[in-house]
Write a structure and sequence with these properties.
single chain; alpha+beta; 5-stranded antiparallel β-sheet; 14 helices; disordered C terminus
């Protein structure tokens, strides 16, 4: 879209000035958005069969949206995609949570439609966000707007070629799960994921090809805003233990994973929505090999940083 050829513009106000770059860094819904050469992030949305290029930028303490074409649903859809911020979440009273909320207060907790979140999460399995960002727009364009019917209809070789850098072996599982969702109906799928009992939704998602707990939990957090489970990756597993928020024996088994989740969810009602902050901490300071304890903003509340005898053998 030519930045000067704008069909519609509007603002999304926020109580806290948003940090758009950090927002787009790590969350699953963010991987459908591309950095725009003129600043901000862009993607194509398909509304009533019409492709609409949308760009979001920081402006006036909120987000400014420009779109190639107007559509009555666009403002509400963008607000749903960018609903609230870490500063707004109930993360409990532990001092660690207070510092995490203060540090990342401008991050927007994003939302994505369930099927889109599912496909992006499958693509991201064992792949970087940068890889998924390259693959997803081409797949969306190939489908003429990502829908279960259009994805299921793709020839498998065409699908393998389109997602090659994200793992061509994922073509079969994507095609199979798309066919299952298409046969059941997208409305039914959305209902089961977003409005059904969370335990049933988790079990249903885990029954789909190539979907285990972490993938299912990602979909539920980012699409249903669940408060009863969350994805557990190596960063969350390591960082929450070091901070004393959820202790474990160092082995990420299903039983230990569930125990970690249960411990974390006792801290505050919205902890699941903020799970990705541990990935941000784990990638920057609280790394596995040699954590940068002396420069970490959490060092005064971290049992690992305060223990000079701690070793990597003791904590993963």
């Amino acid at each position: 879209m030519d930045a000067t050829a704008v069909g519609v513009e509007f603002d999304l106000p926020f109580a806290t000035p948003p940090d758009l770059d950090a927002t787009m860094d790590i969350q699953i819904p963010a991987l459908a958005w591309q950095p725009d050469p003129t600043g901000g992030y862009r993607r194509v949305l398909h509304l009533d069969g019409q492709p609409i290029t949308v760009i979001v930028r920081e402006a006036n303490g909120g987000l400014h949206v420009t779109a190639s074409h107007p559509h009555d649903e666009l403002p509400d859809l963008l607000r749903r995609m960018f609903p609230d911020q870490v500063a707004d979440l109930d993360l409990g009273t532990n001092p660690v949570w207070a510092k995490l909320r203060s540090r990342y207060r401008g991050l927007i907790v994003m939302w994505a439609p369930p099927f889109e979140a599912l496909v992006i999460t499958v693509l991201s399995q064992n792949r970087t966000g940068e890889c998924v960002r390259r693959v997803y727009p081409a797949l969306d364009q190939l489908c003429g707007g990502l829908m279960p019917q259009s994805l299921a209809a793709l020839d498998r070789e065409t699908l393998r070629a389109a997602i090659r850098s994200a793992g061509p072996y994922k073509a079969d599982r994507l095609g199979e799960l798309a066919a299952l969702v298409a046969a059941d109906g997208l409305d039914r799928f959305d209902q089961r994921v977003m409005h059904g009992p969370s335990t049933d939704a988790l079990a249903y998602l885990e029954s789909l090809p190539g979907v285990a707990h972490k993938t299912a939990a990602c979909v539920l957090v980012f699409s249903a805003r669940t408060t009863t489970t969350m994805p557990v990756d190596v960063h969350l597993f390591r960082v929450t233990d070091r901070l004393g928020l959820a202790q474990h024996n160092g082995k990420l088994t299903p039983a230990v994973r569930d125990a970690v989740i249960s411990q974390l969810l006792t801290h505050g009602a919205d902890v699941a929505l903020a799970h990705f902050v541990f990935l941000l901490v784990g990638r920057t300071t609280c790394t596995a090999g040699t954590p940068a304890c002396t420069t970490c903003f959490l060092r005064r509340d971290c049992r690992h940083a305060s223990n000079p005898l701690s070793t990597e053998e003791q904590l993963p």
